[in-house]
């Protein structure tokens, strides 16, 4: 089914769940993590923006799971300095037996300068320096016996190049299978590539696109995502009125299970080792649609 995993050092499985868990209690999040593992998903991805600390969440979930990889998609490098990030990484790896997938990203100027009141630097320079600082940072306790991979939230060519040179791969977000093909070419055959894909099991075009536009609104206002989409052949008109049908359909795979599964297969065929599904709620609110999670579960035939 699709392309065989080629990443030599790390195999995190082929299908995971990317989910905003801030609308769930810690008890509900624990139940969700255990359920996704039981359904055969191999990784659970959580973001970092304006909610809970992702490392606290993943450390908590590590006790309720056995083999599930626990991933940040992404951890903001402006949220903690390189020494603190290294410490958090080792702590979760120690608690989980090396199941942390550390996705790192530069976030967005609006989030960093506006909300966090930090100086937003050039993304490539900031990430390169941060990785070097993490490597050199002092860590006194014994290292965990096993450590998971470090991935960059990379979109455009130069950040993907840095992911190839200085990390274990990339976790692109808000992308298409065409981007996956480009990312694989830049990363080369041996780096881990784990794109996020939004899915919505509403079959009628009007309601599906309405919910998709509601979800996409924030992202379309962020230059990092817009600029990346422009390199994929979209034009300024595609961003108007909440996004053209062409853009909405490219970002959100909606419809019946066969149609959505075909999109997942496109990512695998384009070079993805792992696809992180974000199962959008039918009401457009943050969180996950549990019926959709079940529908694509590997142990349910998904």
From TrEMBL:
One Pfam family recorded for the sequence: Bac_luciferase
InterPro entries membership: F420-G6PD/mer, Lucif-like_OxRdatse_MSMEG_4141, Luciferase-like_dom, Luciferase-like_sf
Keyword match Protein biosynthesis: no
Keyword Oxidoreductase attached: yes
Keywords for the protein's UniProt record, in alphabetical order: Oxidoreductase
SUPFAM superfamilies membership: Bacterial luciferase-like
Name of the molecule in the record: TIGR03620 family F420-dependent LLM class oxidoreductase
């Amino acid at each position: 089914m699709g392309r065989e995993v080629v990443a030599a050092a790390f195999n995190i499985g082929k299908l995971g769940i990317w989910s905003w868990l801030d609308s769930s209690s810690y008890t509900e999040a624990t139940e969700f993590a255990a359920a996704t593992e039981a359904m055969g998903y191999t990784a659970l991805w959580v973001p970092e923006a304006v909610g809970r600390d992702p490392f606290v969440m993943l450390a908590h979930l590590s006790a309720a799971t056995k083999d599930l990889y626990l991933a940040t998609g992404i951890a903001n490098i402006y949220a903690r300095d390189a020494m603190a990030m290294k410490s958090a990484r080792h702590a979760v790896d120690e608690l989980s037996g090396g199941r942390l997938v550390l996705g790192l990203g530069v976030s967005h100027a609006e989030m960093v300068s506006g909300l966090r009141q930090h100086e937003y630097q050039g993304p490539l320079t900031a990430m390169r320096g941060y990785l070097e600082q993490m490597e050199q940072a002092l860590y006194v306790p014994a290292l965990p016996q096993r450590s998971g991979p470090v991935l960059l939230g990379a979109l455009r060519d130069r950040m993907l190049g840095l992911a190839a040179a200085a990390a274990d791969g990339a976790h692109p977000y808000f992308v298409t299978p065409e981007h996956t093909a480009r990312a694989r070419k830049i990363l080369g055959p041996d780096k881990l590539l784990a794109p996020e894909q939004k899915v919505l099991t509403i079959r009628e075009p009007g309601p599906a696109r309405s919910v998709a536009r509601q979800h996409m609104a924030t992202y379309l206002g962020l230059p990092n995502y817009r600029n990346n989409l422009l390199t994929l052949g979209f034009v300024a008109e595609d961003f108007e009125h909440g996004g053209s049908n062409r853009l909405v359909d490219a970002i959100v795979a909606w419809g019946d299970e066969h149609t959505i599964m075909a999109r997942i297969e496109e990512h695998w065929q384009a070079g993805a080792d792992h696809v992180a599904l974000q199962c959008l709620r039918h009401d457009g609110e943050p969180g996950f649609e549990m019926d959709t999670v079940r529908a694509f579960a590997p142990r349910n035939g998904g």
